[in-house]
Structure formats: structure tokens, C-alpha cells
Design brief:
This protein is mainly α. It has helices at 2-24, 28-36, 40-72, 74-94, 98-110, 114-124, 131-156, 163-182, 202-210, 215-229, 231-244, 248-299, 303-308, 310-315, 319-330, 336-364, 377-396.
Length: 408
């Protein structure tokens, strides 16, 4: 029972982390204009700055938080992060200047350790052949939050631009209280690792993790794949509006369906797939599915066909947890936090790079003087990047793999 409650807390933490981002998205344009004045274009500019600051802080401090959890334990890092996150949302709720919003995003980026530390916790409590499946639960929780956040945020926005921040603060504080009573520590003296600054920064973490067999190339795959997958949040709204004439509500609905699909695949189908084909094959299968989905979306001209492709695109999401499972089994027990922190930094860099790459590609191929008019070009680029991931993986993946369980 205690273990189930602890896992429930971990999954709720990831849901709330994902929800917290989505909760505030609907009000950010109005909030920035309310605080700083200007038009929607200027608000978008400041919104981009705030997003970049948040991602930059995740890059810089992800390995630090992960190393702290390897030294002091997952429990204090998770609980302190949630408490600080709650105060951060309160700060943004009362912010009267753009500079306070910037301070809020700095603090939020530093304390956004919930998902990476939660993944390290799941690695601690999982047998080697269970890790990929449990990472799938983390992905499913993130998908649920991805769906619920904007929906609830849109409803709360009717009560003012500050209401979603107060709601996010309440949720973070409530989960911290819940975790205080149900979350046991998993870092024992056997796996506790001294904190060292030379390994608690992005470059140091990449160096030490990258020295493990095959992990240097696997981290490269994570980075390239993150850029490819960002095509969905990066250009989907613009693509849907231009290619299919979708309204904002239809775009939101399509993203919600996509999030539900990922939650079902990673939360329900992930473990049966792993038992049948193993982690290595699951990575290749998922990446091949992604290539097919990207190519199809690159040329589709009918919105209903695009929606019908949602199950296919969601099925490709098995690649991420399977890849994460391989990496977690390769790292030592006292490196799980360091590994997850390094992965958080990699994803943060991708979050900084990908919007520019994908939106510029979309812009170039939708102009009147483009060599070919192709709104789906970013998806084709995503497909090409995913093919690169497959080629690297086939050369980089460790030989050892969990074998399919044919006993059932």
C-alpha cells in the first residue's frame, strides 16, 4: 500500500508539473499585456523570452538537481521543489511588472526537477526489466497533464488572468503535503553518491554519463529526437490553421486527442509491447512509426485524415520510455539522478533550438516565393531527423537487452 501511494504521488507530481505549464498558457498573452502594455505581437515576444529563460534554467540546473537527489535523496528534492514551485506561482500571481515574471520563470526553471527526479525515483524502485514500462507511466502522466492543463486553464481564465496561477500554487502545495506523508526515501547509503560540482553542471554530467557504454550516442539520439518531436507543439497550431482552416478550438481539441493517445499508449500498452518485443525492438518500432507519421503529415491535405493519424502518431511514443529504460539500466544505481538531470538538460536545449528550426522551416515553405509550397515541410524534416536517430541507434545500442517474456 505504501509503495502504491508513493507511486501515486510520483505520477501526480508529473501530472501537476505538466498541468502547471498548461494551466497558465491560456492567460499569458493577456497577462503580459496587462502588466507590460503593448500589442499581441509584443506580448508574444515577451512570451518567447520567458519560455527561453525557463528552458535555459532547466539546462543549467537539471544536472545539479539530479546530483543533489543522488546525494541527499529523492524525497527532499521532490518536496522542496514542490514547495518552492507553489511559492513561485504565488509570485507570478501577484506580479506587477514583467521583471517579476522573469524572476518567476527563473525560479520555476531551476525548481522544475519534478519530472527528472520522479523518473529517478521510479528507476530506484524498479527491477531492470521494469524500468522502461515504469518510465512509460511517467510519460502517460505527462500526457494527462498536457490534456488537462489547457482545458482547466481556459476555464479558470474566465475568473481573471491571475486565477490559474493561484490554482497551480494550490495544486503544488497540496501535492507536497500528500508526498510528505506517503513518500519514503529510496536513496540508501549503498547508492548514495557524494555531491561534486564538476559533475553537477551540464558539461560535467554529459562527460561522466557519456563515458558509460553506448550512452554518448544514445544522448545524441535523445537530443535529435526531441527536436523532431517538437514539431507538434512548435508548428501544429499554425499548420492546422493554414492547411485545414481549423479554428483555435479545433486545434486545442486535436492536441487534446493527441495527449490522450500518448497517455493510453504509454500508460496501458507500453508494458505489453515491451514483454512481447523487448526494449531494443520497441525503440526501433516506435521510431519507424514516427517516420511514417511524419511523412504522412507532411503531405496530408485533409484535416480528418490528420486526426485519423493520431493513433499512429501516439503509438510512436513508445520509443522514448524504451530508450530511457536502456539508458537507466546502463547507468549505475548511484547515477540515476545524474542521468535524469542530464536528460532534462538535453531536452531543455532541444526546447531552445527546436522552435527556431521548425517555425523557420514552416515560414520558408509557406511563402509565395518558396521553391515549393509545402506547409507540411517541418514534419518531413522531423521524419528525416528520426531516420538519423534510427541509424545512430542501430550502431549505438548496447547488446544487452531485456528479452521478450513469452511465458504469458
Amino acid at each position: 500500500m505504501n509503495n502504491r501511494l508513493a507511486v501515486t504521488f510520483i505520477l501526480l507530481s508529473v501530472v501537476m508539473d505538466s498541468m502547471g505549464i498548461g494551466l497558465i498558457m491560456p492567460v499569458m498573452p493577456d497577462l503580459i499585456r496587462e502588466i507590460n502594455g503593448g500589442n499581441i505581437g509584443q506580448a508574444a515576444l515577451w512570451g518567447g523570452i520567458l519560455t527561453t529563460i525557463f528552458a535555459a534554467m532547466q539546462f543549467l540546473f537539471g544536472p545539479t538537481i539530479g546530483s543533489l537527489s543522488d546525494r541527499f535523496g529523492r524525497r527532499p528534492v521532490l518536496l522542496i521543489s514542490l514547495v518552492v514551485m507553489a511559492f513561485d506561482y504565488v509570485l507570478m500571481a501577484v506580479a506587477g511588472t514583467i521583471w517579476l515574471l522573469i524572476v518567476g520563470r527563473i525560479i520555476g526553471g531551476i525548481t522544475a526537477a519534478t519530472q527528472s527526479t520522479a523518473a529517478a525515483y521510479m528507476a530506484d524502485i524498479s527491477k531492470p526489466d521494469e524500468k522502461a514500462g515504469n518510465f512509460g507511466l511517467i510519460g502517460a502522466a505527462f500526457g494527462v497533464g498536457f490534456v488537462l492543463g489547457p482545458l482547466i486553464g481556459g476555464v479558470l481564465a474566465e475568473y481573471g488572468t491571475r486565477a490559474p496561477f493561484w490554482a497551480a500554487a494550490f495544486l503544488a502545495a497540496a501535492n507536497a503535503i500528500f508526498g510528505y506523508f506517503v513518500l519514503p526515501e529510496t536513496v540508501t547509503d549503498r547508492i548514495r553518491r557524494p555531491f561534486m560540482w564538476r559533475r553537477a553542471n551540464p558539461l560535467g554530467a554529459f562527460k561522466h554519463i557519456g563515458q558509460l557504454p553506448g550512452l554518448g550516442r544514445l544522448m545524441t539520439i535523445i537530443f535529435i529526437y526531441a527536436i523532431a518531436f517538437f514539431v507538434y507543439p512548435g508548428v501544429w497550431a499554425y499548420f492546422g490553421a493554414l492547411q485545414f482552416g481549423w479554428s483555435p478550438s479545433m486545434i486545442g481539441l486535436s492536441l487534446g486527442i493527441f495527449g490522450i493517445g500518448i497517455a493510453v499508449v504509454q500508460g496501458v500498452l507500453m508494458k505489453p509491447i515491451l514483454r512481447r518485443i523487448g526494449e531494443r525492438n520497441a525503440v526501433v518500432f516506435g521510431l519507424l512509426i514516427d517516420v511514417g507519421a511524419f511523412v504522412a503529415l507532411g503531405f496530408v491535405t485533409n484535416g480528418w485524415i490528420a486526426l485519423a493519424l493520431t493513433p499512429l502518431t501516439a503509438l510512436g511514443s513508445i520509443a522514448g520510455p524504451a530508450l530511457q529504460g536502456i539508458m537507466s539500466r546502463t547507468a549505475a544505481d548511484d547515477q540515476q539522478g545524474e542521468l535524469q538531470g542530464a536528460l532534462a538538460s538535453i531536452n531543455a536545449v532541444a526546447t531552445i533550438v527546436a522552435p527556431m528550426v521548425m517555425t523557420q522551416t514552416f515560414f520558408y515553405f509557406t511563402q509565395s516565393d518558396a521553391p515549393i509550397y509545402l506547409p507540411g515541410a517541418p514534419f518531413l524534416l522531423g521524419g528525416a531527423l528520426t531516420i538519423v536517430c534510427i541509424l545512430i541507434f542501430l550502431r549505438a545500442a548496447p547488446d544487452a537487452d531485456t528479452q521478450p517474456d513469452n511465458s504469458s
